[in-house]
TrEMBL record:
Organism of provenance: Diploscapter pachys
InterPro entries in the record: FAM69_kinase_dom (IPR022049)
Superkingdom of the source species: Eukaryota
Keyword entries, A-Z: Membrane, Transmembrane, Transmembrane helix
Protein name stated in the entry: FAM69 protein-kinase domain-containing protein
Bilayer-spanning residue ranges: 51-70
Domain FAM69 protein-kinase as annotated: residue spans: 196-281
């Protein structure tokens, strides 16, 4: 006998009338349609249905795992701390970067420049250059142990900067570099290094605006180069829309901070995602 429920399920599929006609007498019904209205026949079909459902379920699980894996991989590729897979960017002139670092470390060795980052930078001279950029700024990205270090300067060599008159007295010099003043007893190499650094607006900006927390943290200097924290690039795949949204919220906070901190009209050049990054220890607002 056909159940009324099963008959109802048929409604809308093949038409009420047709289903009813088929289910009037189950025993007499020989049609495939009868499977759906005769409980005995439905029971026979169940193992097959269950198998199909199981297969579909397993496919779903596999798909979920695959997607989870894809997003895991992409997240880690943007993760600052996972740099095991970092390879030099294609097309960069690694020997040029090494030439610049060698010149800097030679000057440091010869006592011509100084800086707190010099010792570490020049200790082994085995640099793993992962990125290099030289246009209006020289930027060298190194893989140093488990960390990425970024060295920047407006000019590749310290001799490219006009040297400040060596005959100046300490007072004269101190007045000139007062925002940066590193205390008394500066050696000639300190002066040389500092005078190249203070000729670079970005260095001064990074040095003077750490409180805004919007500029990369200045880690140290060596000669004319300053070491800044490595940032997680904003450039990312389209499916990171959620993250991009969060970044934009941070950006709004950044603009608000700059507005509050600076008494001067703010001009922000080259605002594009490529020029923005997120600090690994960026404070939550
Ligand atoms: C790479 O840098 C070295 C050292 O400065 C230079 O001699 C060479 O011409 C550069 N190569 C290219 C392709 O620019």
């Amino acid at each position: 006998m056909c159940s009324e429920e099963m008959t109802k399920k048929r409604e809308g599929r093949r038409g009420v009338a047709r289903a009813k006609a088929h289910c009037k007498d189950c025993e007499a019904c020989d049609d495939a349609d009868c499977t759906w209205c005769c409980p005995e026949r439905l029971a026979a079909l169940n193992p097959l249905l269950r198998l199909i459902l199981l297969v579909i379920g397993m496919l779903c699980v596999i798909l979920i795992l695959v997607f989870a894996n894809i997003s895991n991989n992409s997240v880690s590729s943007g993760n600052l701390h996972d740099i095991a897979a970092v390879t030099p960017r294609e097309g960069i002139n690694v020997s040029r970067a090494q030439e610049i670092l060698t010149a800097l470390c030679d000057a440091y060795r010869d006592g011509l420049v100084s800086g707190d980052s010099c010792n570490r930078l020049c200790f082994t001279r085995k640099w793993t250059v992962t990125d290099y950029y030289e246009a209006h700024k020289t930027v060298i990205v190194l893989k140093d142990g488990g960390q990425m270090t970024v060295y920047k300067s407006e000019q590749p060599f310290y001799t490219d900067f006009p040297q400040i008159d060596n005959s100046k007295s300490y007072e004269q010099y101190s007045d000139m570099v007062s925002p940066m003043s590193a205390g008394e007893g500066m050696t000639q190499r300190d002066r040389t290094s500092l005078s190249t650094l203070i000729q670079q607006p970005e260095f001064i900006l990074f040095r003077l605006l750490p409180l805004t927390r919007v500029t990369p943290k200045l880690i140290g200097t060596c000669g004319h180069m300053y070491e800044v924290e490595s940032l997680v690039a904003f450039r990312m795949k389209g499916y990171y829309m959620n993250l991009k949204g969060k970044i934009l919220v941070h950006l709004m906070g950044t603009l608000k901070l700059l507005y509050e901190f600076l008494n001067e009209p703010l001009q922000w050049c080259a605002v594009k995602f490529e020029n923005l990054g997120l600090s690994a220890d960026y404070p939550k607002r």
